[in-house]
Amino acid sequence: MGVPNEGESIQIQSYKHNGHIHRVWEETTVLKGTQNIVIGGNDRSMVTEADGRTWITREPAICYFHSQCWFNIIGMIREDGVYYYCNLSSPFIYDNEALKYIDYDLDIKVFPDMTFHILDEDEYERHRKEMKYPEVIDQILKRNVAKLIRWIRQRKGPFSPDFIDIWYERYLTYRR
């Protein structure tokens, strides 16, 4: 597995368990790239859905991917604070073409006051049956939902008070 270079612009590709493409973010600037962690930033990035529809992200965002965690975290910077969108997913890989992961439907939306909602549980159950997620994947994902909730409550990693500010400042240096 490769490692993206700091300052490099990469594509992010999300897949479903059946191998089909789910969503592609065209341009994310790498702020940190190691074997274990990739932190990226983007603003008004073009996103292409599996059906070909496209849209542009509305606000700056800092993305956090970890090679040992079955989730990724996007901190969206809005006027009234940072909102987080957490995708339960496979750990990422980077293959010099793009950063890639499998999206497993479950999401957690976190508000600036650190309250949160688990989303798409019905979609997860439907896809778990349709795509025949193995029991081991189901158990890993359930453990990682609990881990993610602990991180939110403990303000750990991307949820720590200064994390988004520090990485957004770094992102702005690449935009100049």
UniProtKB/TrEMBL annotation:
Record: active site: 23
Q: What is its EC number?
A: 3.6.1.15, 3.6.1.6
Residues reported in the UniProt entry to bind Mg(2+) 1:
87, 103, 107
Q: Which reaction does it catalyse?
A: a ribonucleoside 5'-triphosphate + H2O = a ribonucleoside 5'-diphosphate + phosphate + H(+); a ribonucleoside 5'-diphosphate + H2O = a ribonucleoside 5'-phosphate + phosphate + H(+)
Q: What residues does Mg(2+) 2 bind to?
A: 105, 107, 120, 123
The cross-references to InterPro entries, in alphabetical order and at most eight, read:
DUF402, FomD-like_sf, Ntdp-like, SA1684
- What are the DUF402 domain coordinates in residue numbering? 18-156
Per UniProt, the keywords (alphabetical) are: Hydrolase, Magnesium, Metal-binding
| A GO molecular-function descriptor | ribonucleoside triphosphate phosphatase activity
Its cofactor is:
Mg(2+)
Top EC group: hydrolase
What's the domain of life for this entry? Answer: Bacteria
Name the family.
Belongs to the Ntdp family.
What this protein is reported to do is described as: Has nucleoside phosphatase activity towards nucleoside triphosphates and nucleoside diphosphates.
Write down the NCBIfam families for this protein, in alphabetical order: PRK13662.1
Q: What is this protein called?
A: Nucleoside triphosphate/diphosphate phosphatase
Question: What organism does the record attribute this protein to?
Answer: Bacillus methanolicus PB1
